[in-house]
Amino acid sequence: MRKSIICAMAAILIISATAAFGAVKEGSFSVSPLVGGYSFDDDQHLDSTLVLGLRAGYNFTKNLGVEALFDYATKANASNAGPDRSLNRLGGQALYHFFPDNAFVPYLAAGYSGLHFQGTEGTHGAFDYGVGAKYFLTDNLALRGDIRQILYSIDSNHYNNFEYTLGAYFQFGAAAPVAKAIEPAPMPEPAKVVPAPVPAPVPVPPADSDHDGVIDTLDKCPGTPAGVVVDSNGCPIDSDKDGVADYLDKCPNTPAGAPVDSNGCPLDSDKDGVADYLDKCPNTPAGTAVNASGCPLEAAKKYCDKPTVIPILFDFGKSDIKAKYHDELDKVGNFLKEFPKSKGTIEGHTDSIGSPKSNQKLSVARAEKVAGYLNKKFGIEAGRITAKGYGESKPVASNKDAAGRAQNRRIETAFSCE
Questions:
Q1: Residues 374-384: pLDDT tens digits?
Q2: Which residues are bridge partners to 370 per DSSP?
Q3: Torsion (CA) 333, 336, 340, 345 in degrees, nearest 10
Q4: Angle made by CA atoms 310, 314, 316, in degrees to the nearest 5
Q5: Prior bond to 323 cis, omega within 30?
Q6: pLDDT tens digit string along 304-350?
């Protein structure tokens, strides 16, 4: 359905070049019946569905208008054995029109509305924004296309939905334009005689003894070597602010605050190849193999050659990774960077609540979320990590109580080390 909407809007763009009608009128009212599609956030496990809508608007100026809106999204099929849902949306939005005097008028829109799902209690506040375009067939009739992103929260979960629609735009009630009186052209003023300018004396250029482009009276660093780039005060530029001028700095772009030597290079007190400002294990004994953080490599080998339970627990029915588990995942990411030839699997598991089929799908989603986190944050090649899901088939605790089920909603790793 999204593809159909995009194709229709492209057709409007093509034919707009020959249009003769227009456009948005100040003080006009409008009514727009719409039809299109509504797509839910993946975590809501609802298929895309048909949406019917109605807009009623008023244009304060040619550029700025407002609209009241009502949408009805027909019943969407649930993809996780949950209940099907239909949706009502009621609210308003502001529109800003670009090129309002043309036949083809693009615009930006933003607004706020209330969402109510059939079969649930309460209404959820939602912010929406997006783009649209009107193509005028006559002075008061246009085709319109819109795309909106709709943002809202239910409990502690945040969702992003999309709505894409086509419809008609009926405009009426605009005030007639007021003709402007033609003012007579002003009479030209008589020409003024301007006396010829007196040549100014040629000034003597101020002295710049070190030839750095900053005169001596303003130069706070006199005697700068020839060819050195200086700032407005005549002092050599120090781009990384480490106290060593660029022309002497053998380690440019040192991070701010990092202690450096006379050559502008970060200090490495324990000579382990990791600069002090990055070294999380200072005073490492000479000759010890360390990782990128300056710590001995042996600390990372707990992930090697045996299954390891990663203490990441998931909410029931969810695959989102909570922020409090990022530190533990970062340890796995650092391990994979320290052992660039290591390969293995990320295994996802669930408790026994729900059908085996849905639990299998959920366990794969959890494993893929963890693998994706490591790939994106640490640049780990996708071929080094295989995401697998085992559903409810491998419990580590009893599924008869909440504590046991929480332990079963987990992630395990199994990596080889080379």
A1: 999 999 888 89
A2: none
A3: -120
A4: 150
A5: no
A6: 656 777 878 888 888 899 998 898 888 888 888 888 888 889 999 99
Q: For a pLDDT cut of 90, what percent of the chain falls above it?
A: 41
**How many whole angstroms from its chain centre is CA 33?**
32
Residue extent(s) of CATH 2.40.160.20 domains in the chain: 2-172
Pairing of the two strands 157-172 and 141-154: antiparallel
Which residues of the chain are in CATH 3.30.1330.60 domains?
304-416
- Residue 409 CA to residue 138 CA, distance in Å, equals 61
CATH of domain 304-416: 3.30.1330.60
Closest to 384 (Cα-Cα) out of 409, 353, 416: 416
What type of residue is 339? F
Q: Which residues pair with 129 in a beta bridge?
A: 110, 149
